[in-house]
Design brief:
The structure is a homodimer of 436-residue chains. Chain A is of the alpha+beta class and 436 residues long. Helices cover 32% and strands 25% of the residues of chain A. In chain A, helix 7 crosses helix 9 (320-328). Mean pLDDT of chain A is 88; it is low at 184-190 and 374-392.
Chain lengths: 436, 436
């Protein structure tokens, strides 16, 4: 049983946070494109960033800031231009963004963290940013989380938001989060942004450790297409405004907080995987029986990332052969005679050999996982135009009915999960047409 | 300048080989599905096989055979059923296949090597095989290479075949090869079969070394979708019938032979990449400036395997940002300020920063690479049914006009190449509809 409850409010659910999101004119579409999260007081700040050799200016900026100073007051995020591969001018633009906001908030620029998402190689439209920042700060509100969540998305179909509450020393403690991402999502913190707020008091060293572990079990365990971005950033603030005693070492209170932080990150990560470009369903891969958890997660990620598995799920085809092939190439040694594969409640493979199963019922299981999306019958139509479906009206995406692939490879105690989505015609369409 | 010339004849071009391909009734489609290559005399045999933990019975069979005995007379290949994840009965079927053929050829079963391709989890249709083998042996011919090449393919649109000739000690020496593969193709010998014949005399140890190195520079440097198969096999025979002196150690003659072997493997590998499921063009990625060749090949493979790069090429979009992002996440450290990217003759990025370039001309360059395929204008149409194109009449695929992506990451002396193809609607269609 989870030791917390879901509440409303996103990143402004924890005490002492305000947020805002506006249309500054950065996106050619005219949709909201500038977001801000502000803590009333200096908050402990931790971050996990892309491991790519090609990084956006904001990533270098944040890494440096967090190295120099482990607290922050604000996170500024622009959507539209990635400000990656923009050279020294991109660095100057990032610095100027922080300075502009600092002036408007009347704080030191070193208390500001930055994130960008959009087209690689394009500088931030600084004129629009300059005129947008005063408006952005004026829009800050204790109910501004949804506006912020709506201003950081790009090709996302839905916004991603969550808030959870637990009690520490009989006082409520909350963690909220918003995220964006719907493609290029890879185990190593690929193109996604996530911002987490917390009102507990926790030491900076511990907060960074908790965040790194939570990232491994969430954002680093999702995959959409194996591509990693230049801009991936997960930033988490903890401002102590819950007035609970400071947590400075691991123990029952710290474990409770970390579990809730992990749950927030997992919710956001699953929402990103579910919103993978062109996806029609969420896939959860559960692996057991390995020597350790790392190996299990490695197998789970390989299965969740297999284009052939993803295509089969889109075709609602219970193709255990592709699952077995993906497990086999994950780089984790196992005896193929120990391999067991389940799809939902259907046992498809045992002792490395296929079983008889009700193929129609298994296919129906795959179809029910996509009930919030127009499901098409690939057998009944040869018109690929029909197959792509109309996504324009999708407002919500359920996360509670994923396709579950459960794989066991032996008798070890290692377990691991990974999340992904299916591969559809729309993935190709979106990515072939997206302008450089 | 290459030290050889292309000749006709495929695997029967070298002296002392016969081949055959027939319809035995293994494939539901009624297309040719059983192939045989026979050397008149015992040939030195080498092999490279899948590294997957889940392997077909034929892979285990060949590994064991080549461990016990480094020579062979024949390669038997069935298409239709992969005979993978078929347990002990699959092993018995493989052994019976070899015994049936040995009896018909009047040789020892241990001189026979096996390969299978098709649906994972399905046993070979042994009744069809039993009645097919006498017919297959009766069809053996010195001009049978094309029939064999046509009997090992599954979703391939075209057959893959090559033969080259050089001279050693003033005598002609030939290497021929046939291959199959059009999906699930990954750097680590993924689902592909390739059979190579050679009439040089070479020691078994050296022949295996040459083949392993050639595989790294060819089949292990292509990627279609990152999936690796249960059945990948590259088998090469050298029967000495050219009557040239035996090559037993590295030297000028050995290098000449290895270079030609590598060229044969590269031709077949490129043909497989070009025939990737749904592909409209071949992509060649050339990487320079790394510390060593391995690092360069690693970056090249990551770019060639990026779904986002592949989608952009399908959309004829000169999207250098995705190429930079893929290079950055390859796991090879470099300074992003040293990054240079060229697309054909168009320099897109230098010193890590984008340059002005003629976007229309660069897009036109991408379009010319697909002149043997119906190219569609993604901007002009919103009908994804049109975009898929009609592939039914494709008979040949040009390999001489790939899209060339050239990337430099520094001043090191390492170089490497990889080959892939673009990602189209048809990839999803083929893989969503292919029956388990």
């Amino acid at each position: 049983m989870a030791d917390w409850q879901e509440i409303t409010g996103g990143v402004t659910a924890p005490k002492g946070y305000r947020a805002a999101g506006i249309t500054a004119g950065l996106k050619p579409s005219g949709l909201p494109d500038l977001a801000l999260i502000v803590s009333d007081v200096e908050a402990i700040a931790a971050g996990v960033f892309t491991t790519s050799q090609v990084k956006a200016a904001c990533v270098d900026y944040c890494r440096q800031r967090l190295q120099d100073k482990t607290s922050a007051r604000a996170i500024l995020c622009n959507a539209g231009q990635a400000n990656a591969a923009t050279g020294i001018q991109g660095v100057r633009d990032a610095e100027e963004s922080a300075e502009l906001l600092a002036k408007e908030l009347n704080i030191s620029p070193e208390l500001i963290l930055l994130a960008s998402t959009g087209v690689i190689g394009q500088r931030i439209k600084m004129d629009a940013l300059r005129s947008g920042i005063p408006k952005l700060v004026a829009s800050l509100s204790e109910t501004g989380s949804d506006a912020a969540a709506g201003s950081i998305i790009t090709t996302d179909l839905v916004t991603k938001s969550i808030a959870l509450e637990t009690t520490l020393h009989d006082r409520p403690v909350r963690i909220g989060g918003i995220a964006k991402g719907s493609g290029m999502i890879h185990p190593n913190m690929a193109t996604m942004l996530a911002f987490v707020t917390c009102d507990a008091a926790v030491s900076s060293h511990l907060w960074q450790q908790m965040l790194s572990r939570a990232a491994d079990k969430s954002f680093n365990s999702i995959t959409v297409d194996g591509d990693t971005s230049t801009n991936d950033s997960l930033i988490a603030l903890a401002n102590g405004q819950s007035r609970t005693p400071a947590i400075t070492e691991m123990g029952a209170e710290a474990e409770k907080l970390e579990a809730m932080l992990t749950a927030v990150c997992q919710h956001l990560a699953k929402a990103i995987a579910r919103d993978g470009e062109g996806a029609t369903c969420l896939i959860e891969v559960q692996v057991t029986g390995t020597h350790d958890d790392l190996a299990a997660r490695q197998i789970a990620k390989t299965i969740a990332g297999s284009s052939l598995v993803k295509s089969a799920i889109f075709g609602r085809d219970p193709n255990w052969g592709r699952i077995a092939a993906a497990a086999g190439r994950a780089g984790v040694p196992f005896e193929q005679d120990n391999l067991q594969i389940k799809l939902g409640d259907f046992l498809l493979l045992e002792n490395g050999q296929p079983l008889q199963f009700d193929r129609a019922a298994a296919s129906a299981y795959l179809k029910q996982a996509a009930i919030d999306y127009p499901v098409v019958d690939l057998v009944a139509t040869n018109n690929s135009n029909d197959l792509s479906g109309d996504r324009s009206n999708i407002k919500t995406q359920r996360l509670d009915n994923p396709v579950i692939i459960a794989v066991s490879v032996g008798n070890g105690h290692g377990t691991g999960k990974a999340w992904g989505c299916d591969l559809s015609y729309d993935y190709v369409k979106i990515n072939a047409e997206y302008t450089t």
